[in-house]
Design a protein that fits this description.
Length: 481
């Protein structure tokens, strides 16, 4: 990604990356498009117009989707002069409604929208792209519903996003289609899920490692020798992370093997890392992918006048499965959090410290179980929808996958908050310090939920910790680990 200090500069579609989303969407750094890209858009728009005119002159009945025809079910009918005159300038698909997307996601969609523009494949003038950049840099951000987007492609949310833009500019038919076609929403949603997943994985590994330390889990559970035996890069990374986090711990290790929940930590965390890597790959590909319909190929040796293809590129078939995979991994981490919390109430060294006093932290195990059960109830696959007809007979459901993943991730934040408080309490009762690599997370937990010595409104404090974990995961607060 080419950029100057504090500015994300887009020279081509491959500059639109997960890192660019982090900077431009999450951190609100300004965006600009290189002059050469703007000139390229003008050349492609002119070449597209010339090709359309040549085709219509050669055959007045020539069909070019959304340009000489209406969209959707009237794709097979050429618009006559009267019908062309009735074509609205404003976008007509802003009909979804419900809870709005967070601003960071709306900004990510705007950034992803540029990937079809900068290479000329959308055949839009540079003025259209600059309007999108203006929305990113100065706003205002429209209210884009996160719900009821059950259509083929993303025409409903994109209609809401660009409705006002279509009033500010006199758009050509292809420019109208280019604003609402493609799959920038799916690209933005998977990128958002992946970015938040990074932070949540770090927090989970820290809190799980702290639980292993205070229960005296034998080092052999996370030994270097296992890396070669298991032969998986993500499980190897989890093993190494746990060893680093547990380095310097002052605890004695129990002589017998730990409970399953502690021994399988590298495997389950490895699976989460694998889902995280899959999400990041899907996001990276999706953000720079050309997904417009119809898509324009600029003139070259193979197509001297250029070419116009109608495609299904707007259907992002990798977004929902990748988002689902990360949601399932987070749901598993919720279940593991519940099991580790339960283990603290049964381990011979820690049980008296958290379970021996009915008026202290003991009820927390019920709260953690509540989060785990809620995650379990939400995590289910997002399959192709059958709720459509005619031309638009297969809806794409990345929004639904993202909403479920968001809900599961917030359950994980809740479960980790409860487990962190329990682990902090054990450490306090033991009169021990956390190893250096885990000291920061313990300090951050105790800054919100101090050690417990008697009844108090502990749920309210855990609420603050839960909210802090979510804000940290979504870039709105400093990392907790």
């Amino acid at each position: 990604m080419a950029s100057s200090l504090g500015e994300v500069v887009i020279r081509d579609r491959f500059d639109i990356t997960v890192q660019a989303v982090l900077r431009a969407a999450w951190r609100s750094e300004p965006v600009s498009i290189a002059d050469a890209s703007l000139r390229g858009m003008e050349a492609s728009a002119a070449a597209f117009d010339a090709l359309v005119q040549a085709r219509v002159q050669a055959d007045p009945e020539a069909l070019m989707y959304g340009v000489t025809s209406a969209p959707g079910d009237r794709a097979g009918v050429v618009l006559d002069e009267e019908a062309q005159a009735r074509r609205p300038n404003r976008l007509w698909t802003a009909v979804s409604y419900g809870e709005p997307l967070p601003d960071r996601v709306t900004r990510a969609i705007l950034l992803a929208r540029l990937s079809n523009f900068v290479g000329g494949h959308a055949a839009v003038r540079s003025a259209v792209a600059l309007e999108v950049v203006e929305m990113l840099n100065r706003g205002p951000l429209p209210r884009v519903p996160a719900q009821s987007n059950g259509g083929s492609g993303e025409i409903l949310p994109l209609g809401a996003l660009f409705y006002d833009l279509s009033d500010r500019l006199d758009l050509a038919p292809k420019e109208q289609m280019a604003l609402i076609n493609g799959s920038p929403c799916a690209a933005a949603l998977i990128a958002d899920t992946a970015l938040a997943g990074r932070a949540r994985l770090v927090v989970a590994e820290h809190i799980f490692a702290l639980t292993a330390m205070i229960t005296g889990a034998p080092k052999q559970h996370y030994a270097t020798d296992l890396e070669e035996l298991w032969g998986d890069e993500h499980e190897t990374a989890a093993l190494r992370s746990l060893r680093v986090l547990l380095g310097g711990a002052d605890s004695a290790h129990q002589s017998h093997q730990s409970a399953v929940s502690l021994r399988i930590l590298p495997r389950v965390l490895g699976a989460a890392r694998r889902a995280q890597a899959r999400a990041e790959r899907a996001a990276q590909r999706s953000l720079s992918s050309v997904t417009d319909n119809p898509v324009f190929l600029a003139p070259d040796e193979r197509h001297p006048d250029g070419a116009i293809y109608s495609t299904g590129g707007y259907h992002n078939a990798q977004a929902a499965p990748a988002i689902d995979a990360l949601a399932f991994a987070h749901a598993d981490l919720c279940q593991l959090s519940e099991r580790l919390g339960d283990h603290l109430f049964h381990h011979r060294e820690t049980a008296p410290l958290v379970g021996g006093d009915e008026w202290s932290v003991k009820p927390l195990h019920m709260a953690i179980n509540g989060w785990a059960e809620e995650a379990r109830s939400i995590a289910e696959p997002t399959l192709l929808s059958l709720g459509a007809f005619g031309q638009n007979d297969v809806p794409e459901l990345a929004f639904l996958a993202w909403r479920k993943a968001e809900a599961v991730a917030r359950c994980l934040d809740g479960a980790l908050a409860g487990l962190a408080v329990l682990a902090s309490q054990v450490l306090y009762k033991q009169g021990r310090d956390a190893p250096e690599a885990l000291r920061g997370v313990v300090d951050n937990v105790r800054a919100i939920v101090r050690p417990v010595n008697g009844p108090r409104l502990l749920g309210a404090e855990c609420q603050h910790l839960w909210e802090r974990l979510t804000r940290s995961a979504t870039g709105q607060d400093t990392p907790i680990a």
